[in-house]
Amino acid sequence: MCAKASMEEFEALLKESFEIDTPEEGSVVKGRVIAIEAGQAIIDVGYKMEGRVDLKEFANPGEAPSIAVGDEVEVYLDRVENARGEAVISRDKARREEAWDRLEKAYASEQRVDGAIFGRVKGGFTVDLGGAVAFLPGSQVDVRPVRDAGPLMGMKQPFQILKMDRRRGNIVVSRRAILEESRAEQRAEVIGNLTEGQTVDGVVKNITEYGAFVDLGGVDGLLHVTDMAWRRVNHPSEILSIGETVKVQVIKINKDTHRISLGMKQLQSDPWDTVEKAYPIGSVHKGRVTNITDYGAFVELEAGVEGLVHVSEMSWTKKNVHPGKIVSTSQEVDVMVLEIDSAKRRVSLGLKQTQRNPWEVFAETHPVGSQIEGEVKNITEFGLFVGLDNDIDGMVHLSDLSWDQRGEEAIQNYRKGDVVKAAVTEVDIEKERISLSIKALGDDTFSDAVDGVKRGSVITVAVTAIEDGGIEVDYNGMKSFIRRSDLSRDRAEQRPDRFQVGDKVDVRVTNVDSKTRRLGLSIKAREIAEEKEAVEQYGSSDSGASLGDILGAALKGDKG
User: Fold this and answer.
1) CB neighbours (10 Å) of residue 8?
2) How far is Cα 197 from Cα 87, in angstroms, rounded to an integer?
3) Domain S1 motif: where (predicted)?
4) DSSP alpha helix (H) spans, 298-425
5) Cβ-Cβ contacts under 8 Å for 183 (sequence gap 6 or more)
6) How far is CA 19 from the centre of its chain?
């Protein structure tokens, strides 16, 4: 009976042992540390199986292994038995399997996960997420490029999973997303405490050509270059430096974009409030040239108050010259206030108005009729331009070059650079014109010769040349020409060959042309005038006397 009972117990135990499942390879099992030797932990995973795991597999990045005899741990069973009869187990693989389950849940719920950067690879870094290794791209390390990632290595910190693929074993994480979210929360909190018009202290973080970014304690505001000072600022670095603490005023807050506009000049009094009183129209002030353009130069009267000297108001005499050839940047100049527009914050200034009008000065010092001497600056088709005092010119028209020559002929006698003398004939200050005459300094032979002679006068001339078309005659040195048709009233007598050089002939003046310096003469006109006079004196149309009788009586009367 006893043997039989023992046999039944043995069968029951054997059956029970068969019913107990042997752990499946490739699964995670629980074990207990039974010994630590030679840098390894010996772990009993049950089922009369033991395995070895390197102690380093129990350490987090940057930390010492935390394991002791008696600890219960989960390991991954690779194989049930190796060549030495031991189970092949791994703590890393167990942690990885555990981590993937945990990370997939975090990824699905968009939760943050903790990890530590432990290595550098091409394009980024490797991160231990508690057993699973993830890739951290360089662009996702921080909100700004990181030059030295050393301080971040081995430090436990939160990450956001961007992408994961368990089948391929790929996980991509971001540290930047956490920082941006944190910054957004911080920005929202800081912005919520700010109001437009509020004065705050900030630290200059970055300087650009158009302004500076100021940290207000977790949120940046833009201080535009035009809001730094009332005066012109060419570059923000002129008045700010990185790291400097500045007092600024909140000008505008955009609640949607969280953009903050700041100002420094708003904390100072606006100089334009007193411009009209400080700079009355017509007053002269000293200023500094701050900028030169094609259309003029900007002159600073005081910090924050600039005026424009238009190119037309820069010089009395230099009309088509670039402003840069008249003034230079930073030069101190005297200017006159011409106009003020406070609404548009504009001041019109004049540079030439601080000096006397050179045409006015010339008119005072050189009255009409006075004589000047100057160099021929230019020769044009209508006259000469002569250089005068104070960089102004006077013009000698063609008609004022010579008494005896036509202007076109007389101008050929002059060259650029010649020094000439002339008389002032007119000064037009408004039109900025000075008229000169060279011939006015010489004798007018024509006027002298024809002095007292007028149209209708009868004068005696001397024949100097006989031509087919008429005769040339001389009167007090002035040459004139009598055409064939004017040689006689009688057509048969209109022959030039009936005259000889040296003959004295009485002629009637038909025209005195001072411009062409010519006398119009006619023998025929004299004869007609004499006949008319005789008829009026000695007869009438109804007396019955013949023309011969009248002329005969006239001749007798003359003899008597």
Assistant:
1) 10
2) 74
3) 26-92, 110-176, 197-265, 282-352, 369-439, 456-524
4) 358-365, 407-410
5) 143, 218
6) 92
Kindly report the CATH number that applies to the domain delimited by 358-437.
Answer: 2.40.50.140
* Whole-prediction pTM: 0.46
CB-based contact 476:449 (threshold 8 Å):
yes
Closest by CA position to 505, among listed 532, 533, 534, 525: 525
Tokens of 122: 């091409």
In 3-state terms, what secondary structure has residue 488? Answer: coil
Enumerate the domain spans of the chain. Answer: 26-109, 110-180, 194-267, 271-354, 358-437, 445-539
Contact, 97 vs 130, CB < 8 A? no
Grouping H, G, I as helix, E, B as strand and the rest as coil, residue 357 is coil
Domain 271-354, what architecture?
A: Beta Barrel (2.40)
From first to last of its 560 residues, the chain has per-residue pLDDT tens of 445 556 666 666 555 554 445 566 656 677 787 777 777 777 776 767 777 877 776 766 556 677 777 777 776 676 766 556 576 676 667 677 777 888 888 888 888 888 888 888 898 999 888 778 899 998 888 877 777 878 888 888 899 999 988 888 788 989 888 887 777 777 777 777 788 888 888 888 888 988 989 888 777 888 898 888 877 788 888 888 888 888 888 888 887 777 888 988 888 888 888 888 889 999 999 999 999 999 999 998 888 888 999 998 988 888 888 999 999 998 999 999 999 988 888 899 999 888 888 988 888 888 988 898 899 999 998 899 999 888 889 999 988 888 777 888 888 989 999 998 899 999 998 888 999 988 888 766 666 667 777 888 888 989 999 998 899 988 887 788 999 998 898 888 889 998 999 999 998 988 887 766 778 899 888 889 888 888 877 655 454 454 555 555 555 545 44
Of 413, 366, 415, 412, nearest in space to 388 by CA? 366
Query: Please, what is the end-to-end C-alpha distance for the chain in angstroms?
Result: 215
d(CA 426, CA 403): 19
* 110-180: CATH superfamily: Nucleic acid-binding proteins (2.40.50.140)
* Distance between CA atoms of residues 475 and 482, nearest Å: 12
Q: Which of 297, 357, 284, 286 is nearest to 327 (CA)?
A: 297
d(CA 477, CA 518): 12
Gap between the Cα atoms of 337 and 343, Å rounded: 16
The pair of structure tokens assigned to 230 is: 């009332």
* Six-digit token string for 242: 């990185």
Phi, psi at 399, each rounded to 5°: -70, -10
Residues with Cβ within 8 Å of 139's Cβ and at least 6 positions away in sequence, in order, are: 176
Return the biggest CA–CA distance within the chain: 215
Residue 444 φ/ψ, nearest 5 degrees: -90, 90
Q: Are 188 and 178 in contact (CB under 8 A)?
A: no
How distant is the alpha carbon of residue 293 from its chain centre? 8
Q: Which CATH architecture has domain 26-109?
A: Beta Barrel (2.40)
Amino acid at 32: R
The architecture that CATH gives domain 194-267 is Beta Barrel (2.40)
